[in-house]
Each structure stands twice: as C-alpha cells, then as structure tokens.
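Researcher: Here's the sequence for the chain we discussed earlier.
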Amino acid sequence: MDIKDVEAFFFEASLNTYLGEPGTRKGETISISHLPQAKCWEYSNGLFLYRDIYYVSSWGKGEKTGGQTVIWFANVPVWIMQYRGQYPDRAISLLRWALLINMKSKTFKGGRGPDECTVSGSGLIYRNATTRNEFTDFEGREEIVEGELVIGEHSYAGLSLL
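Model: Thanks. This is the structure I predict for it:
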C-alpha cells in the first residue's frame, strides 16, 4: 500500500458515500452514540476504511458545518481532511455538482471541486482555490457566489499520516 492507493480509495469512497446516487452507493450513514448530533458516512473496501464525520448547525446565518474525513488502512489512520464553513440550502446542489466533477474525473484539488463551475440558469458560481495542493499536504477555500456576494464557503486542510 502506498499513497497512490490511498488517493484512489479516496475517490472511490467519495463516490460511494455523500456524492453517490441513492440506490447505487455502497457506503452508509451510521450513528456514533458517543458523538451526539454527529452525522457520519462510512465506506470500506478490503483493509481500507473511510469515515466522514461532520456536524451541522442551523444557528445563525446559513447552515454551519464542520467535520473531518479520515482514511484508515488495517485500522491505522493514514490520511485526514478537516473542513468548516457554511452553505445555505439553495447552494447545496451546486456544491455537490462541483465535488462530483472532480471525484468522477479523479482530479485532486484539495479534495474539493474544480477551480470554477456553474449550473446553467442557477445564477450561482462555485470557486475553489488552494494554497497547497498535494494529496499528502493541502489547504484551501471554496466558495459559492451569487453576483458579487459570497453566499457560502468552506475552508479545508489535510495531509497524509504516512
């Protein structure tokens, strides 16, 4: 197992959890009793395990979220990404579309979407900028804008633990 195997599993797991189509994805949502209010996507294949644990709060303006995605190999954590921010409900379909573009093409851009994309007629634009962009060490910020107004954003960072 090397870092390329971990990266390949990241794309596979992403498409089998949150970004997967209902009925075709192989991952599942699970509850973790000692983490109240946590939401968790889990997917495994062989010795690899992927868990995306996050929290959503509707307090204040928009949906605030924070969480982390961890990949284990043989019960040892080998990769981690942490994220935080907020998106209103009306931005979620564009966010999912943007993430799906890079996951399907196996393009790593901070584990998020492309530099920029939009859905025709939505009036929304997704943008993603990294300050570091290696699968082994990355950091950046994504946002969705409407006109000149940022209506949602996430900051993220992660690294290999190998």
